[in-house]
Specification:
With 639 residues, the chain is of the alpha/beta class. The protein is built from 28 helices and 18 strands. Strand 10 (351-355), helix 17 (361-370) and strand 11 form a beta-alpha-beta unit. Pathway: Amino-acid degradation; L-valine degradation.
């Protein structure tokens, strides 16, 4: 086709973008031609490496060709865009995982879709004119084509800064941020490409590399980390507003022009992706959740209208006051079920037994079924879960399953259920317990599973009922590497992050330590608000100070116990539980049981347990959210 030139020259597969008048913007047909070439050359012994370059001086590739996306979307045809993004993302994954060297030459602008083809190879070359950026927030999208992976891997909080401001990176900045590898002046490129074609040896790139210019971004990192250290858009905006600097003022001005929904979702995506479980496929799957909904529920069409079609630069964004509810972010990023992005090499759905289908287990099982897994469930209560077949016993649900998942009230019940299901499970299957139980019970079940030739993972969760429904749980997993690897694809469906904490029991240890901190911190946060009230300090003023100062905490910034202050939380719904005080008491008791067993001194944990026991069992805390400690303290004087 005239927009792209694909051929084999010498030992190299060559892909040259040939529409410089359109800044080499990539169309769907170009994307599919690249995909086909990469798949053919992957199996071709005559091709040793792949080279990407482009005609013209202004751009390697300034992004995707969005005219057709806008035209189809405004006519209510969302499937064209979904197909484009799905197939493009599959090509991005193929390129990132390619078994042969891929050398890309990135002159001028490399943005959006250009990053997806130019910045996922093994040898990424920039020159004196290179300008790399992820500007998608400015048109109501999020950094995609695997861009969230690169932003999540960037130093410090640089990923948030680049994603939210569409900051352009020169050659030194691109290398510092991880979007490029080598600086080579452009007048050398022709000779270097000829060497690569003749030899098929990518090491010539390193031998031609020269020192890049200094990175402006590297010098700004202290300011960037200070300003973008928050966990939400509100946190970052609050911090920027308190900073008296030209950097903060300029950044706030830039962010005032960008889609608040897109910015909030970008922050949440980077937060979910950071960590040892990050892969290109996980990043692309999360990106596709947003882009799948971008036309119908996001700001994408309005962003294109304002920036490209009408060019009035005055988009009517959703949440124009920049106060984006957590529910709106969750809606854009919740799992897609049967519409989820998949990759050809992936296996078909697993056969799963799920035991314990209550407030947490029910939606977790439903999400697995929506993702295409064959789920058979069992619960002592008469329940019905969409997509889940029901068995008449735990053993029947476990029979023939690849993985059996349990979500149960306590360790005693876990041991009883494990004794029932382990004999019914085939050797090599995995038992994954997502309950919060004592460490000793987790280790005992692990030993029983190992004796039967089974894998075991203790994987308690954080995120509450909302996280279970939205597929945003965090899993703290203990068990062998093989056991964790078998369960990890399911964690990716049910949650946003899974951390392998160590051997069996380590997941439970991590959960009870985390929740001991949470329980203690919530008490301190509630006490502080009650004290502020008695001192005549306005609650909103207190939040504005503490949320951007050394008193910053999750219980203040993300789950504020004061109604009408901070992001929406159970406090705004009369303390209807997101995480019940009864469950906090259970977890604090588990922490103190473990502390006694390990001979650990935990006086704050002990005091927190005693306070929650009094609140739940001696007062009116039963059935309320654990943040309802605040009205308790409001009513009390100093004793």
């Amino acid at each position: 086709m005239s927009d792209i030139d694909i051929r084999v020259t010498g030992r190299a597969g060559r892909i040259t973008l040939t529409r410089p008048s359109a800044l080499n913007a990539m169309s769907y047909d170009m994307c599919m031609a690249i995909d086909a070439a990469l798949r053919n050359w992957r199996e071709d012994d005559a091709v040793d490496l792949v080279i990407f370059d482009a005609e013209g001086d202004k751009a390697f590739c300034a992004g995707g060709d969005i005219a057709e996306l806008y035209d189809t979307g405004t006519r209510g045809n969302y499937e064209y865009g979904r197909t484009f993004w799905r197939d493009e993302y599959r090509m991005n994954a193929l390129l990132f995982e390619y078994p042969k060297p891929v050398v890309s030459f990135l002159q001028g602008f490399t943005m959006g879709g250009g990053v997806g083809i130019g910045c996922h190879g093994s040898h990424r070359v920039v020159c004196e004119t290179s300008k790399i950026a992820m500007p998608e927030n400015g048109i109501g999208l999020v950094p995609d084509v695997g861009g969230t992976l690169m932003l999540a891997l960037a130093p410090g909080r640089l990923g948030e800064y680049l994603g939210l401001t569409a900051g352009r990176m020169g050659p030194g900045d691109a290398i510092f941020a991880g979007f490029a590898d080598h600086y080579i002046p452009r007048d050398i490129w022709g000779d270097l490409i000829a060497m690569l074609e003749a030899s098929g040896d990518a090491s010539h790139v390193e031998t031609h590399a020269q020192p890049a210019t200094d990175s402006t971004l590297e010098a700004q990192m202290p300011q960037i980390d200070e300003a973008f250290g928050g966990e939400s858009l509100g946190d970052i905006l609050n911090t920027l507003r308190t900073l008296d600097s030209d950097f903060a003022a300029d950044t706030l001005k830039t962010m005032s022009r960008i889609s608040p929904l897109s910015m909030a979702c970008t922050i949440e995506m980077l937060r979910r992706l950071r960590g040892p479980s990050l892969t290109i496929r996980k990043a692309l799957e999360l990106e596709y959740r947003f882009t799948y909904r971008a036309m119908e529920h996001g700001d994408f069409l309005e962003g294109i209208r304002a920036q490209i079609i009408d060019k009035d630069r005055n988009p009517a964004w959703q949440f124009a006051d920049q106060n984006v509810p957590v529910a709106a972010v969750s809606k854009m990023l919740q799992p897609l079920g049967k519409d989820a992005l998949s990759f050809e090499e992936e296996k078909q759905g697993m056969k799963i037994g799920f035991i314990g289908l209550g407030n947490m287990g029910g939606p977790m099982a439903a999400n697995l079924a929506k993702a295409g897994h064959d789920v058979t469930g069992f619960d002592m209560a008469d329940v019905a879960i969409d997509g889940v077949s029901m068995a008449d016993s735990a053993a029947a649900a476990a029979a023939g399953a690849d993985v059996v998942i349990t979500m149960l009230p306590n360790g005693q019940i876990l041991r009883a259920v494990a004794a029932d299901v382990i004999p019914a499970m085939a050797a090599g299957a995995a038992l994954v317990d997502c309950s919060t139980v004592d460490v000793d019970s987790a280790r005992a079940v692990d030993a029983d599973a190992a004796a039967a030739g089974l894998l075991f993972v203790d994987a308690p969760v954080s995120g509450g009922i909302g996280g279970a429904a939205g597929g945003t749980l965090t899993f703290m997993a203990g068990g062998s590497a093989d056991a964790f690897a078998k369960a990890e694809p399911l964690f990716d469906v049910m949650g946003q992050k899974a951390v392998h904490c160590g051997d069996a029991g380590a997941g439970q240890a991590a959960k009870i330590c985390n929740n001991m901190i949470l329980g203690v911190t919530m008490i301190a946060t509630c006490e502080a608000f009650a004290l502020a009230d008695k001192l005549g300090l306005d609650r909103q003023k207190m939040f504005d100070v503490v949320s951007t100062s050394s008193g910053y905490s999750w219980t203040m910034n993300a789950y504020c116990p004061a109604p009408g202050v901070g992001p929406q939380s159970p406090a705004d719904n009369d303390y209807t539980p997101g995480f019940a005080a009864d469950l906090m008491l259970k977890d604090l008791r588990l922490s103190q049981q473990a502390a006694e067993s390990a001979d650990a001194d935990t006086p704050m944990g002990q005091l927190a347990q005693a306070l929650y026991a009094q609140f739940v069992e001696g007062e009116d805390g039963a059935g309320k959210d654990f943040s309802a400690m605040l009205p308790r303290f409001e009513k009390r004087g100093r004793e």
